[in-house]
Amino acid sequence: MSAFNDPDHPAAAPDAKPTLPSGPTPSADAQVADAAPGNWVDRAAPRAVRPYLRLSRIDRPIGTWLLLLPCWWALGLAVAAEPASARPETVWIAVGCLVGAFLMRGAGCTWNDYTDRDIDDKVARTRARPIPAGDVTPRQALIWMVVQALLAFLILLTFAPLAIVLGVASLGLVCIYPFAKRFTWWPQLFLGLAFNWGALLAWAAQTGTVPLASVLLYGAGIAWTLFYDTIYAHQDREDDALIGVRSTARLFGRATQRWLFVFLASAVTLMGLAVLFALVSASPLVLVIALAGVWAFGWSLAGQIAALDIDDAAVCWRLFLRNRDTGLLPAAAFAVAALAAIML
Questions:
Q1: What pLDDT, in 10s, does the model give residues 2-42?
Q2: Is the pTM here over 0.85, yes or no?
Q3: What are the structural domain ranges in the chain?
Q4: What number does CATH give the domain 48-343?
Q5: Which of 172, 227, 279, 340 could tie 263 with a disulfide, CB 3.0–4.6 Å?
Q6: Long-range Cβ pairs for the range 325-329 (8 Å, 24+)
Q7: What tens digit of pLDDT does each residue of 105-144 get?
Q8: In this structure, are residues 333 and 293 in contact, taking their beta carbons and an 8 Å threshold?
């Protein structure tokens, strides 16, 4: 089949004028398609605040995990590399990253929904989101976004000066990401640049520096994001083709698994190099513990490739969710390595 006959091929859809999906706008109480059935927002949250919680994706915590985990990678590896830097504030950095990731993920999702408000009502999975459903106005969404971002900024102000500068600089990536799918086939790359910035920020918060190891860890996170968000994007491949939205899922098509292997190899290689550069002077035990986390991370990604069916949206969603546990593997290993480095 040629590219011009294949609606999933990148060359086929953007310049066409397809018939857009139509249907009634969901009711204000309709459950968002990719939220877990019976989640606490739908079940227990007051109706007045429910749309705002949905804008922040509080009913889907996976995004907070994916934003948080590179921060914890960096914090653990930074302490393992410089155990003398461990101090009571290190615990606050870990907690601050958690709260900050929660808030900034919410602000970023709100901004994404605001910029995509004319697209989401044409995609089956996103049609029930608060703005296209009419639960909140675009102006209300912007106000909610600013509130979340300001609260996150207050937390950022408790970190080291370099971390504050890095945190403010990340706003440019956050602002650009929602528009990336309109001008590039690689919006997942822009997501990776934004979502893994915490690897640089957390390292700077702990040590006041941004060494090569933190940059390599940042690169590993970007490759990981390309991996999991390509899987995620296959859920919307057909709708995206209809409305001309670009993604790596559409770009790769049937070659997706080969590309995922490239991203796996890149993520594992870069993370392994980050460990080696960071722990070049550490004890062998600390190094082995940290590398074990990289090894487990790689095997978890390999398992996802083996289980992937790009034509089954439920499988894609389930594998995407698995990345919380995948990312926790090196986070746990780096934390144990840090404790070992402190005690040795």
A1: 333 333 333 333 333 333 344 444 444 555 655 666 777 87
A2: yes
A3: 48-343
A4: 1.10.357.140
A5: 227
A6: 325/300, 326/224, 326/228, 326/297, 326/300, 326/301, 327/65, 327/66, 327/69, 327/70, 327/73, 327/224, 327/297, 328/65, 328/69, 329/293, 329/296, 329/297, 329/300
A7: 999 999 999 998 888 887 777 788 899 988 999 999 999 9
A8: yes
